Amino acid sequence: MLLIRLSDWLTRSLMVLGAVWAFALCFLILADIVCRAIGTPLSGTKELVANSVVIIVFMQVGYAIRSGSMLRATFVVDMLPPAVQRLLFILCLAAGAGIFFFLLHAGITPALRSLANGEFDGEGALRVPVWPARFAIIIGAGLAGLNYLILLLAEILGFRLANLEL
């Protein structure tokens, strides 16, 4: 199905981009540590890292959901009958989709307001725009909600989806 392939491609792409971003961020943090050791810290590192962590998390959450690697504790659920396990799984998928679609809906206005007002984080030499993090939240939440919805429909209709892998 085209929607599933498009979602999978976007999910993989954002996960890889987020991983590359996290890798590059390691070098920024290392450079700041070295510069602090010689008495000249890099300005704005804290703001860049704080906003980047939010962006990276929301770039990768869709992949965690679609690949089946989202954290879950099933030690109690495993003791229940299979029919109850399936029902709980369906309810959890529906709740996950609902939560992320709610987050998408709730984040649109703040993201647009942040872009329109030119909201920045930090003071002094480096001011980091906040709107990229806010838009990453709504894009990531939308993709996460879509992936939960895909898994939910596949479970209800009895389709077997291959786990998303690189």
Compact summary:
The chain has 166 residues and is mainly α.
Outline the structure in words:
With 166 residues, the chain is mostly helical. It has one domain. 73% of the residues lie in helices and 2% in strands. The protein has helices at residues 2-37, 45-66, 82-117, 131-157, and strands at 120-121, 128-129. A two-stranded antiparallel sheet has the order 1-2. Strand 1 (120-121) and strand 2 form a beta hairpin.
Radius of gyration (Å): 19 Å
- Our count of domains comes out at 1
Helix content: over 70%
Order of helices and strands: HHHEEH
Overall pLDDT score: 92
Anisotropy-based shape? elongated
SSE class: mainly alpha
Report the span from N to C terminus.
19 Å
Count the DSSP helices: 4
User: What is the spatial order of strands in the main beta sheet?
Assistant: 1-2
Beta-strand percent range: under 5%
Low-confidence stretches: none
Number of beta strands: 2
Main pleated sheet: 2 strands, antiparallel
List the defining traits of the structure above.
166 residues, two-stranded antiparallel ribbon
SSE blueprint:
Elements: H1 2-37, H2 45-66, H3 82-117, E1 120-121, E2 128-129, H4 131-157
Antiparallel strand pairs: 1-2
GO cellular component, one term: plasma membrane
GO molecular function: transmembrane transporter activity
Function: Part of the tripartite ATP-independent periplasmic (TRAP) transport system.
